[in-house]
Design goal:
5-stranded parallel beta sheet, 2 domains, 14 helices, Rossmann fold, 351 residues, 7-stranded parallel beta sheet, 12 strands
Length: 351
């Protein structure tokens, strides 16, 4: 059997790569080889010469690249959305663009849950301050020496003890509010069921039957904001959602509530968020996405004890490549077998 010429610049795990090699003659290049996303249009055209299938993770597949690759019949982008692919140009040339939606939903959801606990219990502050010398005892000759005391407590008698400084609420029996409720939101809800929480959702696209099945209550945004102890953003950036969360929305939240954003920075008006945190309108925030990345070194968020910051790593678990490799492999096999592919992002654009 003649193998299909395939170019791969994306991350495919070794087990699925071996399975692909049974059917495809694979040439590796671009990001997966160099670790850099710097390939020019002309270089990518040259790499794709004669290829029928392209697995592209980060390189920009522009109209010029598509028009310069006449043998191309399928583009596979192992990402949640193929933002680096000109899907319109691909469709005009009859090329399906396959993506891997929700590949990192569990990874993001687990980070959200960890953010909630870390915010409430001030784990980030406690770890940082202890490692930087706060509340430590004097150096000793033998750090492994046993103690006769059974009830060992860390400076409990001091006015500013860590037991008092890092005290915070538990997340159990509280209310979680979702702004948007897709694959990530539903996974967060599933992970939190063991905490006996209530779940409120604002999502105009969520069918009532789906909400009832998941045990969440559909509400207006105002109801979600006013009654939730945690507000988590789970919607895409669109003209309608850009800047939709600002001073008005923060004013509706409880002063004891926490705000979480692992979606996109542009959904939130950053000046309004900073003001809400500084003024005590909300208790704190966990942020994984920002208006510009990396975050500027002089940003006021960096000085706030009630803000937990991570550098856009919600989807950076080591299990995500396995998930997207499995999804990509299945659709490539469907293509080879002339069967309908499950995740064709530009399906509606194809003639």
């Amino acid at each position: 059997m003649n193998k299909i010429k395939t170019v791969c610049t994306g991350t495919i795990t070794p087990d699925f790569m071996e399975k692909l090699k049974e059917h495809c003659d694979i040439t590796m290049g671009g990001y997966v080889v160099t670790g850099l996303n710097t390939m020019s249009e002309d270089d990518l055209i040259q790499l794709l010469k004669g290829a029928e299938i392209a697995i592209i993770e980060y390189e920009n597949v522009t109209r010029k690249v598509i028009e310069g690759s006449p043998s191309l019949r399928l583009i596979v982008c192992p990402r949640g959305k193929p933002v680096n692919i000109d899907c319109q140009a691909a469709a005009e040339h009859g090329i399906p663009v396959v993506n891997t939606p929700a590949r990192n939903a569990n990874s993001v959801a687990e980070l959200v849950v960890s953010q909630m606990i870390s915010l409430c219990r001030q784990l980030g502050c406690a770890n940082h301050e202890i490692k930087n010398g706060r509340y430590l005892g004097e150096p000793v000759a033998d750090v492994y020496a046993p103690t006769d005391r059974d009830d060992v407590v860390w400076m409990l008698d001091e006015e500013d003890s860590p037991f008092k400084r890092y005290r915070g609420p538990e997340i159990s029996y509280r209310t979680m509010g979702f702004i948007g409720y897709g694959a990530v939101g539903s996974r967060v809800r599933h992970l939190l069921t063991g905490f006996d929480m209530n779940f409120l959702v604002f999502d105009p696209y969520l069918p009532k039957e789906a909400a009832e099945k998941d045990g969440v209550k559909l509400c207006s945004m105002e109801e979600v904001l006013a009654n939730s102890d945690f507000i988590s953003i789970h919607c895409a950036v669109t003209p309608q959602t850009t800047g939709m969360f600002g001073a008005k929305q923060f004013a509706m939240m409880k002063p004891t509530a926490y705000f979480i954003n692992t979606a996109r920075g542009k959904i939130v008006r950053q000046r309004d968020l900073v003001e809400a945190l500084e003024s005590g309108k909300i208790a704190g925030a966990a942020l994984d996405v920002f208006w510009s990345e990396p975050l500027p070194a002089n940003h006021p968020l960096l000085k706030m004890r009630n803000v937990l910051i991570t550098p856009h790593i919600a989807g950076a678990s080591t299990d995500v490549p396995t998930c997207h490799s499995r999804m990509a492999y299945k659709d490539i096999m469907h293509y080879i077998s002339a069967e309908p592919m499950k995740h064709v992002y530009n399906q509606k654009l194809l003639k």
